[in-house]
Please model this.
Amino acid sequence: MNDVATALGRLGELAIEVPSWAYGNSGTRFKVFGTPGTPRTVQEKIADAAKVHELTGLAPTVALHIPWDKVDDYAALKEYAAGLGVGLGTINSNTFQDDEYKFGSLTSSNGSVRRRAIAHHLECIEIMHATGSQDLKVWLADGTNYPGQDDMRGRQDRLAESLREIYAGLGENQRLVLEYKFFEPAFYHTDVPDWGTSYAQTLALGEKAMVCLDTGHHAPGTNIEFIVMQLLRLGKLGSFDFNSRFYADDDLIVGAADPFQLFRIMYEVIRGGGFGKDSGVALMLDQCHNLEEKIPGQIRSVLNVQEMTARALLVDTAALGEAQRSGDVLAANGVFNDAFYTDVRPILAEWRESRGLPADPMAAFRASGYQKQINEDRVGGQQAGWGA
Model:
């Protein structure tokens, strides 16, 4: 395997953006569950996110969701976050909750609906100017449920036209990242269902348009690391939404269902030049903690990514390349397995301690009394959650 010290030296480059909405209430299609200590404001969400970064050193930025996280003064919100040791990251748009978007937003055949959706994204860009954010992330619920319901080609044309206007509003150092999803909430066809559609739309826009890959947004059995490789090869992988799934878009803790998949993905990220501060690839969580406590759920998630990144960095690429060139199938697979089955947890605990972080962030959170304190302090008001 690669030298452990060399591998750990690169771990300092790992940064994982956490989403503000992960700290609010979430649930299933049938029920959104309330929990004690849930944030009521975006400031309280940021405070919880800052606690994750304080204990792990892995989550320096917080993604915002508009309009859920709207405030009157974004410069003040940026200053507030900085005071807690974190920055404001990706701005996520929302055109999937208003009645007007029932039949589509950027793809709608209704010109006034499209205008409203475009205006929302231009507003998000203005927010990016105030927060210093680099990425505008666009995920669309647009699609149809029945054959013949709408003109699929026409919807693609309208999407391209809408995205061009939004793209034109980007600042010099800003990007548009277009997320895709296999299905849901539309079931006959989704307007941006796969990486190919996202790639085609962003390629037409220009260099500041990239693809966002959500690990839960694929058909069962899809080789996600192949998609990662291909988008990196094409220079179009802009960001990740990390989560885990058993069946569909389950939005579970990343690595919970298939840690080996996460390992394989991180290997391709590293191998393809997508790892590190200057890589241009933003790593972010996109999860719903329906049953577990929110802050420990996010701590577990970023630690899972760190662990699989450490294992991926241990892959002996020289031995792997030799085995591949000689056609030694078992040797090549063995190189992968040797790295994956290495227990790096004790090494990571030492690595954290050497940087003034707790060896066990989960235990440190439980001992901190933070959850008890916010349970007591955050009584009354409207808890944040889906749509709030």
User: Anything to note?
Assistant: The chain has a mean pLDDT of 96. The beta strands are 16-19, 61-65, 87-92, 135-138, 143-144, 175-179, 189-190, 209-214, 237-242, 282-285. The longest helix spans residues 111-131. The chain has 14 helices and ten strands.
